Amino acid sequence: MIFLFIPPGTVLGPITGGSKFLKRPILNYIIRSYVFNIFYKISILILNIRKKKLLFSTNLLKDKINKKNKNHFFNYVLKDLKISKYKNKKKYDLIFYLRKHNNKNTNLQITLAKELAKKFKIITVGEKIYHHNIKNIGYATRFKLLKYIKETKFSFLSPENLYSLFAIDCISSKTNIFFQKHSLYKSKIISGVIYLNYNNVENLLKNIEKNIKEINSFRIKINSDKVKFKNYFKL
User: At residue 26, does pLDDT exceed 90?
Assistant: First the structure.
């Protein structure tokens, strides 16, 4: 409805949304796989009629539109991403950002946090886990959140978005990230991400433990071929 009724000449974007989701719970999967897909197609049809140039926050919707269109700009959220030059002392092993949402696999993260807390220094932001070995920050200002991220070696990302604001803050703070290994998705812009299978909890725990014990340096790099966005805003 927004795309249909916006005034002509409106600068549109960055458009948000995602197409990565879990197959459970089943109702969440059906809604996102079928119902959302119908609305995606309707929205894109309207956009193609009304707009020649489109700006997207991430590339999560890239498979839903015409990939060959040179006037479609993706990953605007990465425009100002820079990795800090400073080396911070890492006091914690792993940080989780917990938020109640069907697509963020919060229950899996809680299970992992409790198990890993037996051996490692675990910290959480957002929803709290009541466990004596876990440090809960709760909901905090971004300034406070960045402080803790900078002091942590690894972060665990929810499976739907590699370019979330939390992920970007982790990368810029020299914190390595774990992300879901999607069969058709791997970042071409960010290298050094640790891709793991979130569907097997036992193997997931083993792989996280192995990486925490073995990796003592920051591995992530930003490729230099990031898209330039200044042309999008030219009238």
Answer: no
Both tokens of 6, joined, read 């916006």
The pLDDT tens digits of the residues spanning 9-20 come to 887 778 887 666
Alpha helices in the chain (DSSP H): 2-5, 26-30, 36-50, 106-116, 142-150, 165-172, 201-214
Look at strands 176-180 and 152-156 and give their pairing.
parallel
Distances (CA, A) of 46 to 19, 33, 39: 19, 20, 11
CATH of domain 92-222: 3.40.50.2000
Characterize 97-129 residue by residue with b for buried, 16 or more Cβ atoms within 10 angstroms of its Cβ, and e for exposed: bbeeeebbbbebbbebbebbbeebbbbbbbbeb
Q: Which two tokens stand for residue 187?
A: 């970042």
Q: Can you give the residue ranges of every domain in the chain? A: 2-74, 92-222
Please give the model's pTM, rounded to 2 decimal places.
0.83
- Over residues 72-117, the pLDDT tens digits come to 888 898 888 889 998 889 999 999 999 876 656 788 899 999 999 9
Which structure tokens are listed for 4?
Answer: 């249909």
Mind spelling out the 3-state secondary structure of 200-231? CHHHHHHHHHHHHHHCCCCCCEECCCCCCCHH
DSSP 79: T
The DSSP secondary-structure symbol of 12 reads -
Q: In terms of Cα–Cα distance, which of 58, 143, 136 is closest to 97?
A: 136
